[in-house]
Write a structure and sequence with these properties.
By secondary structure, this protein is an alpha+beta fold. The protein has one domain (43-161). Helix content is 48%, strand content 25%. It has 3 helices and 7 strands, in the order αββααβββββ. The strands form 2 sheets. Strands 3, 4, 5, 6 and 7 form a 5-stranded antiparallel β-sheet that branches. The protein starts with a helix and ends with a strand. The model has no long low-confidence stretch (mean pLDDT 84).
């Protein structure tokens, strides 16, 4: 014979268990539904780093008619480059400021042997090596020196989230 008190406790436990399952299912579904949004945001930032790299590769520093990356490679390798470093740094900071997504920082690193040149936006943010997610585009700029020697300068464009934003 089943007592009325025992059946009431079993019903309450069953309802409580179903409520807990409902809450867990809602949390898992919410988390799962945000995955495509995060993936889309990541892909957008990957494309932004590609766009930034190609802009620096193809856009000219005015009035010198030399691309930003070519001018930066010349500043890294030559004693008398086509574009003076102060003008190039100012022009590149303007481009980085304009193309940098809000809440993110951009660094451009050019290196050859032991020398490097690394402008960034915002100023003084650093390379962001400790950032959890970085969106990196790597490439190289090739210069032909007067003796016919061809030199490849490594270029890395990094976009990463600014801490605390």
């Amino acid at each position: 014979m089943v007592r009325l008190d025992d059946r009431g406790v079993a019903d309450i436990l069953a309802i409580a268990f179903m409520f807990v399952m409902l809450v867990l299912a809602a949390v898992f579904m919410h988390t799962y539904s945000l995955r495509p949004l995060r993936a889309a945001t990541d892909r957008q930032l990957e494309l932004k780093s590609e766009h930034l790299y190609m802009t620096l590769e193809l856009a000219w520093v005015e009035p010198y008619s030399v691309s930003f990356l070519h001018a930066a490679a010349e500043n890294l390798l030559l004693k008398q480059p086509t574009v003076p470093e102060l003008h190039l740094r100012s022009a590149m900071e303007n481009v980085l400021e304009y193309l940098c997504p809000p809440g993110y920082a951009v660094t451009v690193s050019l290196s050859y042997d032991d020398s490097s040149w690394e402008p960034s936006w915002p100023e003084g943010v650093g390379l962001g090596m400790d950032a959890k997610k970085q969106f990196v585009r790597e490439g190289e700029v090739r210069l032909t020196m007067t003796g016919g020697e061809k030199i490849a300068v490594l270029v890395t464009v990094r976009i990463f989230k600014i801490a605390g934003v």
